[in-house]
Amino acid sequence: xxxxxxxxxxxxEKGKITAFLKKIFEEQxxxxxxxxxxxxIDSATSFALxxxxxxxxxxxxxHMYYFESKFSxxxxxxxxxxxxxxxxxxxxxxxxxxxxxxxxxxERHDSNKVRIGNxxxxxxxxxxxxxxxxxxxxxxxxxxxxxxLLGYFTRFGDQASDFEPIEHLYKTQVxxxxxxxxxxxxxxxxxxxxxxxxxxxxxxxxxxxxEEADQVLFLHFEKNLPVEKIEALGLMNAKTxxxxxxxxxxxxxxxxxxx
Length: 259
Hints:
Number of strands: 4
Low-confidence stretches: none
Helix content: 40-55%
Distance between the termini: 45 Å
Number of helices: 13
Radius of gyration: 19 Å
Strand content: 5-15%
Strand order of the largest sheet: 3-2-1-4
CATH architecture: 3-Layer(aba) Sandwich
Largest sheet: 4 strands, parallel
């Protein structure tokens, strides 16, 4: 099935996003940003947009890893943007994450992978917000619309941010924008991963691809098609994809409050 309906005009999209970012920084009267760069396409695209509106010395980049660093593919791109070396932080989160695992007496087996992954995601966000406090900056989020609708994020972890440049774009649309922005091909080709555990990939965890998910999510949420009609179009993982949304919907509804 062709998914031409997900095509964007990258030039127009870049203009719309940069206008939005300028407005945010002007309204908040803040001229600095902190961004966590994983080495993947979402954070790389967000950084590429950010560097077009802020001075290099006003951008602070943090690469936070538990296993091995994956910053090598992005390093040249970041340095070419004239970000001062003192604004680039390589931070191993292994010690604080391991300390929390020990404190909570968490056994390291598969049934606790997500629990440990959530600790890692929240540890990264503690670091980003501490850097933001230190440098009087805003935290740049890197979530896309596919992750948001699927609930594929850690509450108060990678979901936390002060602004989101690409949350309105589906993952496949982020790829289109990344190509237009001339991101390193190594970054574009990298399998999407939250880096939550060794060998973890988004699509491996889902059991379906982002290409499939984006078509289903678009047809259901923007064209109001029921799952049966989407399946009739040849998208046989439609129910599985929409079940991901339903199972994680609570993440968008918390905290529950008394009104």
